[in-house]
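Bench notes, afternoon.
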Amino acid sequence: MPPLKSLEQEFPMIDSNFRRFCASHGIFSVEDFLVNDLYVLTASAEREPISEALKQGMAQVLSVVDRQHQPWLNGMDLLGDAWRNKRVLPTGCQGCAAGDSATSCKIVPLL
């Protein structure tokens, strides 16, 4: 995942103040940001004089991630993707895991 600095030009909320705040928490990349506790970061930001700008920066990082990675709309989408793109699907049901269409474990489109 990209360093936070690489996002600054396109996303002005991710400025040097925001990056300095993140660095004080050991956050230097988007990946670092995602593995940190957002509640702890928010609480820490609220103690800063520029708390609103920091919270806007956090929202901006999350927005960037959300736009780049399609969220799963529901469990059926996730299951369909797993069947198309995965070799093993550990469901606990032998028929589903093997992709056996003769079983009652079928993907049915939702209307």
